[in-house]
Amino acid sequence: MRAVFLFGLKKELLSIRALIVGIIFSLVSFLIANYSQSLAIFIDGNSPAIDTLFGIYAILGFFFSSILFSNIITTEFKNQTFRYVTPYVSRMKIYLAKFLLMISYFVAITLIGMVVLFLGRHQFYIPIYNLFNLFIFYAYVEAITLLLSTISTNERFSSLLGILISVGMPILYAVIYFKHNLILDIVDWILPFKYLEGTWEISILIVFVIGILYVGEYFFERKDL
Description:
The chain has 9 helices and no strands. By secondary structure, the protein is mostly helical. The longest helix is centred in the middle third of the chain and has 31 residues, at 91-121. The chain starts with a helix and ends with a helix.
């Protein structure tokens, strides 16, 4: 599992797409640090600058996850890579390794972005709860992306479906934000965005992540090599 994780992480970090996404995340931090002085790093126990940064990162993370990882399973099944790995590593470990490397990538570029923000403002503040919530948000996004890549029959369909969901979910959340009814309120609990500023509610999102991973791993175990 460790070898699969490290090999996959190295492969993704050295790709041109991953480098471009990292630059975009860092650029967002740079712009907030230098051109949004009204957003304080820390004031009255809150951090408007980091809240804004994390909100943008959440939307970008959703979109770029589909671009970077929508074919992470589909491509390897197409190339029959798993045929050479499964005799030595269980499918469950392979699936979890893919999930962890996807999260690790976004955690890494988030931490780099925060460093850019702190250096630009010459201030240092780590909102532990907000950071934890963002990482669970990433886990939710990557669990969905991995599930879509597992159940998709080809790379094109996987990419298209991932992009549609990554664009559609933020739009749906925006609709829910301005319009309320019973159905939309229920959907709001399924989407991950409201949990970014949650407290105990984040445990609900953790349950969703575990459930999505279980379903994805179930289909992965039964996928023909």
